[in-house]
Amino acid sequence: MEKSDAKRDEAVERHIADLHGKLKITAAEESQWKEVAETMRDNAKNLDKAIDKRDASLGSATAIDDLNSYADIAQAHATGVKKLAKSFSGLYSMMTDDQKKEADEIFSHRGGHQGKKVASR
Prior knowledge:
This protein is an all-alpha fold. It has one domain (2-107). It is built from 4 helices and no strands. The chain has helices spanning 2-22, 30-56, 63-94, 97-107. The protein is elongated, with a radius of gyration of 16 Å.
């Protein structure tokens, strides 16, 4: 699991750095950004825990186990999105109109988001 954790951490850090650059986070926004970044890290860990738990039981899971593990993954994702929205709202309120426009574009998923797993294994 350590290798997958390291891959996840690397992927999340790349995503955080990419967003930081695309959103042109200023020095004045950095403290709010750190909260957003930490939320993203926590969300990735929680989602991957749910996925790892499901993966560990795939060979012996019943249909009910499978449905429950899928529900756990969906719940971890939904909870994470809510946490991210809350932490991002403070940053968003500080952003310039150009930054907000970029954020709106990024989070609208017009770029072809396809529900990909946080880190490939």
